[in-house]
Amino acid sequence: MPPLYGSKNRELLYCEFGIVISVFYMFWISVALHLFSSGEVVQNNCNSSCCAYDLMAKRVNL
Question: What does DSSP assign to residue 59?
């Protein structure tokens, strides 16, 4: 009786496992990018008391 998992079947199994893992990682990376990116850039108008660090002047602007 031939072995159930021969060398060719084992290589095919590893290839299928690699495809499944890569699809799984692509899915979770796209979910993470979707959750952590809002899709828009909003400028803060600083109506409240906020401060910003000026890189050129090397000081905090109030």
Answer: E
* Domain extents in the chain: 1-37
pLDDT digits (tens, 9 = 90+) for 23-44: 999 999 998 888 887 666 666 6
Distance from C-alpha of 62 to C-alpha of 60, rounded to nearest angstrom: 6
* Positive/negative CA dihedral, 21, 23, 25, 27: negative
Looking at residue 45, its amino acid is: N
Q: Are 44 and 50 in contact (CB under 8 A)?
A: yes
| Predicted model pTM | 0.44
Say if CB 45 and CB 54 are below 8 A apart: no
Could you list the beta-strand ranges (E) of 1-62.
Answer: 52-54, 59-61
